[in-house]
């Protein structure tokens, strides 16, 4: 197997996406070939309103006219040519601090009209009711339980990011299904008296083929968030939905989440403003549920998507437009996807990385300086430059050794790249240095696609410095999503010192004291959920009140709440709704705990409406005084909304769960 080493072509201070380096090295194979334009998530050195997009970059329509309060945002999405990204890496565009690529779904429409914000100075009558937003994969928007008493849909708008683009539409990609469009489809397929309604025909009429299935991840999530399927049911709130692209949800690594999630958040806010404007009311609070995440990434809140979510929450809340974003803690607690340890000066260590056969997606490992909370050394990141990394395949030549600022590519006999190592001094994935190790799929239907050998790969780590070097490693999630066409299979670390069972053969869900294993259950939390302002939710069992064995934990930022996602250890999962009337599904995971907290937060929203007929301009005096952390404070203090603001009474949480998290009361099998 031939190999090549070269310096990473990055000017000092330019923070590029390490996965872009992998895409460049492999000819964008995982993106379907070299695209003309690539969706990108950007961090700017100036407010969005002051940016003049340079040649090669087009801002997304949702960001050209930002939602209220977001004019000073420094995170946005756009479309960049491959040449533009190379120029960014070379330092030609200093206004771009860092970027992260997404998956090209379709070529963006060039002449789109951005969604317009609410007009300033409009005479408004009070505040619009709180709105729920669910960003997921298949939302049953015509489910009978999601209609109001008159039969009209509670869904204010649905953006199907996978749908065919509409020339001259409001969005760069996908389709917007407005409330009138959904209502018209319901009327067109209204059944005769005494005949059951055929929801499948309505979904076909709306162009939502993924909802032909009995259930989807989105139906289970929306059932818990909007229908109260795991709690005593209450009023169904108005909600806004976003279907993430199928390729994004199929790829469970979450690598392309950033672009589409930030677009989705901006869409939700613009639609909430538009709905309030039609009702001649000031925009109300928005509670967003995003039941997706990653395993690998910066676990200190410095990841690009985490930073973008934090900025959006802070800017909106300070403008008097409350928003809360609810995220799952993650399900990787027992996946053996995290390792941590310390290398003495001059010492080396090998991590065994088992990659499965018949894996049709790439596998990734990220190496980071161990966090201060793990080893108590705040300067750990400054010494990663002394780390040398070599990736050994099961057979054949190694990839590396690779030092700081260099990268290596391992090719097969035909010259196709099958593995890479990228050692970045500073990357877009988070603050400080990191190393990305990437291995090609172990199986492909196309015989011309390079594939890597399955088996035990070895990651050799050597400390060439004079000081101890604490290191943390994470394997990126790589399994198969329900109904996915992709065939990902999770890889894992193997360590002979790792103890899976106790003396009686029972699975251990915490690291035993004094363990010398590098593979660890600690700090497995979803890295997107490590920001300052999002509300993070873990899962627990109803029978015991203990955290579910898979529910991830964090070192610096543990989950703030837990909610029931399993009836008992012997009865995993809880009931939620399918895509059709009367259908039920039993599923589990922190992704089903999060929407229960989203519903609870919706009931905690501060309600202090402005005086009827008052003029409320964007950025003007807020109708209530929440701070940027009102949602987290409501959770941490267990007092509901900020002091002095009225709210509907709800049952208070009680202390329970891993990491001292508060537990939200829930009936595990309430239909």
Helix and strand topology:
Layout: E1 3-7, H1 18-25, E2 38-44, E3 57-59, H2 61-64, E4 75-80, H3 82-89, E5 96-101, E6 123-125, E7 131-136, E8 155-160, E9 175-178, H4 179-188, H5 199-206, H6 217-226, E10 239-243, H7 246-250, H8 257-278, E11 286-290, H9 304-318, E12 323-328, E13 338-343, E14 348-355, E15 363-369, H10 372-375, E16 387-392, E17 399-402, E18 406-411, E19 417-424, E20 434-439, E21 455-463, E22 469-475, E23 492-494, E24 535-541, E25 561-566, E26 574-577, E27 584-587, H11 590-604, E28 612-615, H12 630-637, E29 654-655, E30 662-664
Helix pairs in contact: 6-11, 8-9
Order of strands, widest sheet: 9-8-10-7-11-12-24-25-30-29
CATH topology of the largest domain: Rossmann fold
Number of helices: 12
Helix content: 10-25%
List keywords for this structure.
17% helix, 12 helices, disordered C terminus, seven-stranded antiparallel β-sheet, 671 residues, Jelly Rolls, globular, alpha+beta, ten-stranded mixed β-sheet, 2 domains, Rossmann fold
């Amino acid at each position: 197997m031939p190999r090549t080493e070269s310096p990473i072509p990055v000017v000092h201070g330019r923070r590029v996406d390490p996965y872009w380096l992998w895409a460049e090295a492999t000819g964008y194979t995982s993106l379907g070939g070299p695209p003309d334009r690539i969706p990108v998530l950007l961090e700017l050195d100036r407010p969005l309103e002051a940016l003049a997009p340079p040649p090669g970059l087009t801002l997304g329509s949702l960001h050209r006219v930002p939602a209220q309060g977001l004019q000073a945002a420094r995170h946005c999405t756009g479309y960049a040519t491959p040449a533009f990204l190379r120029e960014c890496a070379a330092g030609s565009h200093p206004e771009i601090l860092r970027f992260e690529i997404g998956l090209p779904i379709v070529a963006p429409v060039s002449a789109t009209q951005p969604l317009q914000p609410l007009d300033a100075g409009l005479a408004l009558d009070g505040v619009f009711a709180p709105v729920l937003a669910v960003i997921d994969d298949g939302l049953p928007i015509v489910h009978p339980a999601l209609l109001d008493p008159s039969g009209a849909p509670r869904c204010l708008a649905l953006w199907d990011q996978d749908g065919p683009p509409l020339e001259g539409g409001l969005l760069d990609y996908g389709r917007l299904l407005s409330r009138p469009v959904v209502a018209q489809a319901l009327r067109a397929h209204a059944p005769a008296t005494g005949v059951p309604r055929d929801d499948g025909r309505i979904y076909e009429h709306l162009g939502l083929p993924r909802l032909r299935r009995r259930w989807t991840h989105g139906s289970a999530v929306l059932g818990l968030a909007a229908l109260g399927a795991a709690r005593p049911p209450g009023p169904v709130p108005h909600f806004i939905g976003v279907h993430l692209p199928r390729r994004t949800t199929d790829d469970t690594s979450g690598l392309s989440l950033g672009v589409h999630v930030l677009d989705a958040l901006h869409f939700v806010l613009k639609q909430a403003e538009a709905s309030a404007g039609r009702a001649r009311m000031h925009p109300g609070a928005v509670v967003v549920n995003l039941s997706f995440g990653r395993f690998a990434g910066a676990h200190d809140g410095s990841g690009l998507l985490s930073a973008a979510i934090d900025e959006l929450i802070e800017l909106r809340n300070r403008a008097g437009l409350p928003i809360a974003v609810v995220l799952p803690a993650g399900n990787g607690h027992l996946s053996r996807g995290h390792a941590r340890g310390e290398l003495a000066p001059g010492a080396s260590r090998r991590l065994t990385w088992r990659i499965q056969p018949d894996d049709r997606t790439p596998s990734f490992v990220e190496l980071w300086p161990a966090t201060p909370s793990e080893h108590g050394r705040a300067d750990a990141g400054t010494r990663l430059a002394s780390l040398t990394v070599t990736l050994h395949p099961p057979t054949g030549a190694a990839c590396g050794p690779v030092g700081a600022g260099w990268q290596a590519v391992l090719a097969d006999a035909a010259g196709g790249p099958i593995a890479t190592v990228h050692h970045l001094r500073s990357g877009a994935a988070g603050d400080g240095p990191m190393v990305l190790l990437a291995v090609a799929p172990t199986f492909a239907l196309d015989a011309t696609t390079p594939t890597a050998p399955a088996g035990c790969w070895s990651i050799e780590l050597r400390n060439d410095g004079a000081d101890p070097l604490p290191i943390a490693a994470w394997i990126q999630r790589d399994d198969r999503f329900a109904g996915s066409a992709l065939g990902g299979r999770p890889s894992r670390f193997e360590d002979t010192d790792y103890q899976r069972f106790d003396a009686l053969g029972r699975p251990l869900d915490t690291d035993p004291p004094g363990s010398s294993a590098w593979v660890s259950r600690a700090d497995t939390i979803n890295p997107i959920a490590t920001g300052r302002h999002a509300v993070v939710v873990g899962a627990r069992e109803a029978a015991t009140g203990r955290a579910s064995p898979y529910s991830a934990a964090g070192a610096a930022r543990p989950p703030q709440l837990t909610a029931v996602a399993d009836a008992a250890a012997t009865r995993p999962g809880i009931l939620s709704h399918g895509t059709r009337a009367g259908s039920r599904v039993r599923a589990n995971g922190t992704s089903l705990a999060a929407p229960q907290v989203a519903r609870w937060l919706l009931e905690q929203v501060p309600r202090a409406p402005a005086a009827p007929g008052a003029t409320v301009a964007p950025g003007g005096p807020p109708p209530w005084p929440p701070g940027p952390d009102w949602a987290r404070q409501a959770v941490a203090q267990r007092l509901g909304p900020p002091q002095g603001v009225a709210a509907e009474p709800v049952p208070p949480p009680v202390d329970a769960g891993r990491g001292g998290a508060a537990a939200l009361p829930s009936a595990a099998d309430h239909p």
